[in-house]
Amino acid sequence: MPTDKGLIRPYSFLLVQANRLADALWILASLYVTLELGPGFSRDAVWLALVAPVAFGLCAERNQLYRSWRVAALHEELSMIWRSWLTASSFVVFIAFMFDALPRPSKALLLGWLVTAPLLLSATRVVVRLALRASRSAGRNFRTAGVVGANEVGRRVAERLIHNRWMGIRLIGYFEDRASVGGRALADGPVGVIGDTQDLVERAATGAIDIVYVALPMRAEARIRRLVERLADTTASVYYVADFTVFDLLHPQWETLGGVPILRIVDSPVGGFSGFAKRLQDLGLSFLLLAVCALPMATIALAVKLSSPGPVLFRQRRHGLDGKEFTIWKFRTMALPEGDPLGRQATREDPRTTQVGRFLRRTSLDELPQLFNVLQGSMSLVGPRPHPPGLNDRHRVVIERFVLRHKVRPGITGWAQVNGCRGETETREKMQRRLEYDLEYINNWSFWLDLRILLLTAFRVWKDKNAY
């Protein structure tokens, strides 16, 4: 078995510095080519050539771009590159415009530099990753690891190390004080318990183990502390794998509070800048949709007015963000009296529904006035569908975590709706299934997921058999 695990490690510091230098050179190269295609590289551009790499370097350091990415996926590293570049380039361009010191190529050329630079930086990472993967496949540049704790958490760590060989981490086995030593397999895995923690410390002291994953339960604090103290006399990297599955996590994330690490167990994914960006997305798309749908909405309003006596719009109180009530707007689809203080939902072949209303409900066109709710800020284009207070009050007492769906703004459409969870929720099981999709959306929210849901809505919701 190849044992050349030190091919790159002795030069890791130099490689990090070379990485910083390469990033600066790619930024300068892309700038030089951009200016040569336009007015040419002049003295006016010298300050830009000096400031841009420095600004990116500072942002990259702030975002810890030059740390080890061995166990991280490629897209995470690329995302950090683009985030650092966006911050740095925005600062540089702003300062340049403020002092009228920006060279004057065409806007297309300037945009070309702003896009080409991060593309070159990203391409470099891809090439490096491919080279490292080839090296590790040949048995070089790997680290050896041991897992402390022959339990379910330890098994999950082992599975990820074994099934993600691109990390270059070779698992040698479990170490457990409370299990018999001698290769006892855990869940029929390829490795077993090969020693206790004393064996682990001895191997780490000789350099036979580079990384230690401590997968002991949090209640074993005293054992963990003693083990970490003993491993402090070795050069092994030590990681504690906390089992947070005992909590019902909702968009968990690590933060620091005055230097103290804390874990957000339950929180909204659209706070801070993410919330601001999602709001901009809602405003932009809502204005666009209203411009496109203005004439159809006017036609629908006239049809509703002529089809039965009563107002064009139906208003009802719903629970929204943080459980606060708001007034939702729809085109009226039922004959008066309409509405139910207990939140009684529409049923199939509901006698209250008008002929025009059946068409509007089947095609979901009755939801169009909620674009004004989005502009108002009480709703989002995508999110959990809002329920009447009566319906919420009935389910929150029988379904755990039901209220957590209010951690984001309710939406005109949502992940549950494009997965078939529309219509009545007359049983606990149906509402539970809808809630599971809503919480899955909150846990995995991204702009791309929102766009995917909007596209799926256009193709699925209009012909949903549960829309009535």
Structure, described:
This protein is of the alpha/beta class and 468 residues long. It has 3 domains: 9-137, no CATH class; 143-246, NAD(P)-binding Rossmann-like Domain (Rossmann fold), CATH 3.40.50; 272-463, no CATH class. It is 48% helix and 12% strand. It is built from 14 helices and 12 strands. It has helices at residues 12-36, 46-62, 74-98, 107-137, 152-163, 197-205, 221-231, 272-307, 355-363, 370-376, 389-396, 415-418, 428-443, 447-460, and strands at 143-148, 169-175, 184-185, 192-195, 211-214, 237-240, 253-257, 260-264, 313-319, 325-331, 380-382, 411-413. Helix 1 packs antiparallel against helix 2 and helix 2 crosses helix 3 (74-98). Residues 181-185 and 338-343 have low confidence and may be disordered.
